[in-house]
Amino acid sequence: xxxxxxxxxxxxxxxxxxxxxxxxxxxxxxxxxxxxxxxxxxxxxxxxxxxxxxxxxxxxxxxxxxxxxxxxxxxxxxxxxxxxxxxxxxxxxxxxxxxxxxxxxxxxxxxxxxxxxxxxxxxxxxxxxxxxxxxxxxxxxxxxxxxxxxxxxxxxxxxxxxxxxxxxxxxxxxxxxxxxxxxxxxxxxxxxxxxxxxxxxxxxxxxxxxxxxxxxxxxxxxxxxxxxxxxxxxxxxxxxxxxxxxxxxxxxxxxxxxxxxxxxxxxxxxxxxxxxxxxxxxxxxxxxxxxxxxxxxxxxxxxxxxxxxxxxxxxxxxxxxxxxxxxxxxxxxxxxxxxxxxxxxxxxxxxxxxxxxxxxxxxxxxxxxxxxxxxxxxxxxxxxxxxxxxxxxxxxxxxxxxxxxxxxxxxxxxxxxxxxxxxxxxxxxxxxxxxxxxxxxxxxxxxxxxxxxxxxxxxxxxxxxxxxxxxxxxxxxxxxxxxxxxxxxxxxxxxxxxxxxxxxxxxxxxxxxxxxxxxxxxxxxxxxxxxxxxxxxxxxxxx
Length: 543
Prior knowledge:
By secondary structure, the protein is mainly alpha-helical. 72% of the residues lie in helices and 2% in strands. It has one domain (33-473, 506-539). The chain has helices at residues 7-27, 33-55, 62-77, 105-125, 134-150, 157-175, 182-213, 218-226, 233-251, 260-266, 269-294, 299-322, 332-354, 360-389, 403-406, 408-422, 428-441, 447-471, 476-487, 492-502, 511-529, 532-535; strands at 87-91, 99-103.
């Protein structure tokens, strides 16, 4: 039985329905698919790869790698329409200024670094995929890249933490993907445990900040911390420090760096390269967002903390790298791991300077410029290490002795990458990037940090130049020939064996690996010739 609605009841019902429809309409937002494309495309391709792996026969699995490379290239092209840097989406209906995703200039530059790093990692991986399950490998790599691309665009703490975990969780599995390898399993376990501890500390800090401000959006947090209630001030400051400590774990900043050397050595070499560049880029972008935007009112709290972390990180990394010597057959990958920790210290310096600057957005541009230089040349160094590992799986520093005699172009490329990292000509971009970082702290931040950086740059010169000189030294086999000739007939057999070893032709280099070395070398040369391509970020406000 239906009851007809008449008169004022009908009008009231109509008005209520209209109000309800307006309320529902205000909650429905259109998604800016162009803005989120650089993060969405790798995620979509990851699902395609995972499903395709179920149907492709074993001999066709190589196609998954090319699909991954094509997907990452497409994600890179999707950055083109975002160059203006003024797109936002997932905004609050009550306040259009509070958005969870922003594609500004900072986001676009970091996404370019992330996608480029992931693409080069895929090229490094192509030649050695018979050792790993292809579907899982490419799915995990694309998933991690999607999280890393989302992180610099995150503008609230919830999205920031989720993006950080999406970046990190697949990386655990990638580190331990060498099934049956004890070192790989141990590396994955150390990485997992340290990351879980970091996540717990970060979430505790985020909860404290939310309790004090009542919001998770970064810009609103800054407003809330500027006018926080007196009884909640201590809680807010503790929350800010805990959040910073959590990110310090993720960044491998000293004293939270202990997992890095073993993880890099135990992981597949392309994944070690990925962690050293893309993992760091994601972590640093998150640290920049929470310090410069969310915790700006507490610059007096996080500024000294980041300055101390920078000094400790660069010192621990460079001193430990200095101990890796060819005479003791130390691992080249372990040296690169310690080097990456030292470089992380340099990247922290402009962030610390931002706390003391009246214009912190300009300071973080220096970190971005340095990160772009570091990404190109460090990936190149790992690419050469992957090439050497084809004939010397232990990848010891002694395996690089006389590399110029057998592979002159490869040796020259590695020498160029090492000189860029050291900041010496012809690695002009490395020199200019270090000068930009040094300038960011001089006259702005604490003078003692500038002194510590100068000392560490000198320390780093020693091990970078020592490795460079090793490339052009006389090969060990030739030394054996010379020694046999000098000692006479007693060592003739050893001399002959050495002579035979010298004559062994170099193995053929796979095309993707050659492309990775060539691309990074060209990038380093171009940046050294036209350093303003990245150094312009050091003088501009990206956020």
